[in-house]
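Hi support team,

I submitted a single chain yesterday and got back a structure, but I'm not sure I'm reading the token output correctly. Could someone confirm the output below corresponds to the sequence I sent? I've pasted both exactly as they appear in my results page.

Thanks,
R.
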Amino acid sequence: MDSAHVPLPVASLCRRARNARSAAERHLAAYHAWEGSIRLAVAATPPPAATDLSAPSIGTWVSFCRPREALLAEAGLLAAYRLFSAEGLGKRTQAPSVSGRRLLDALPAYRNAVIGHGGSRDESFYAEAGAALLDGIEDAWRADLFWPADARLLLVDAVALDARGGRRARLVEICGMASLVRGDGEPVPDGARPGRLYLEAGGALRPLHPWVIYQPQAPGRAERVLFFDKLRRGPEYLDYTSGDVVKGKPLADAFPGLDADCLELSRERPAAAVGAADESGPATVGDYRILGKLGEGGMGVVYLARQESLGRLVTVKMLPAEAARDETAMARFQREVNALARADHPNIVKILSCGRALGTAYYAMELIEGADLCGSSVRSPRGRRTSRAPSPPPRATSVARRRSCSRTSRTSCTGMRPSPEAPIGSRCSRGSCATRRWGSTTCTSAGSCIATSSRRTSW
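Hi R., thanks for writing in. Yes, this is the structure output for that exact sequence:
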């Protein structure tokens, strides 16, 4: 196989399969080359929403993957499909061609039957199946099953500004059996970050972070590409070549801010390329990269964003472009910014910065995770869950009622006005009382007025 354009981790696994000491090792390395290729395809074109990443199975990864939509007739791919169908699905086929989707959909069943618990086979099976897997993955990359034909795995190694303020970087191709510096000082988009992996295709760069990350060579360890594996208490990454699992403090020390980046995976909408505008908003606003729209109102649009300089998630509120041309709207927006800047309370969202970009005004706030109160689920006093919003406190209701009424007491009751100190639950027995007075009565229906003393209500 010409491995010049095959990503380094896949090329390394193929070489390991060829040089394996046993048929079982060859089979496992060749299978892992399939898994790694699928995850690279997912990184290049992430799903709109990755729901459960606590321990995604191979079936989950295959469902995320969008292979090339074409009928495949390469001998290695047909042999691999026959293997997956016979061992995983219990079906024998002699189809002259197979679609990429159908081929990959058969892989999880093969994995569960052959590599899962209790799937041990003899050496002759591993020898034959390993050869089919190895030939198949090589043909898959020749047929551009996972990536476009012109795609390359690139590392943005260093970024600097030229005399005109443009961004230029040293690009390293992470392909074949070793990385290769392709150029120093090549122009890159504003969104390109040093130390991260990108897919170069069609003259544009697609970010692969944090689905795959690059770790440079270190004493006693070669350079390696790590694959996102799961997200539990923190992210865990897998090195397919060595089998190492990297997590916890070693991972956090090597990749600061990676935890927050991984939390975005379940809600981030993929952009077609670095610097390209997303459907739900601009690509970047100042120091903030827009990830998606959170909400919209008459005086602004609120976006989820990541502050590039600090690597943290924030929210950015922008004044609509049409409102930015209205002096009154701009003045009101500025008053809102000034009010937030003066406010300092644990229950008030803090403002982080403000400015102007794209012909309008914006400000950034801290991100507070939560839900809409009206749609949230709350607990009743007895512990039962209910979908309705909680009722306001009694005193808040009384204050609202008092403010909506006149200061003087008005009574249309033909009988005696209940005392302000009447016990809770005492009722007016004469007529329809309409008394409105702080600490007096609350009318529930005609002739049934429940006294509510201010001394007995609690906040």
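A quick pointer for reading it: The domain at 284-366 is CATH 3.30.200.20 (Phosphorylase Kinase; domain 1). Let us know if anything else looks off.

Best,
Support desk
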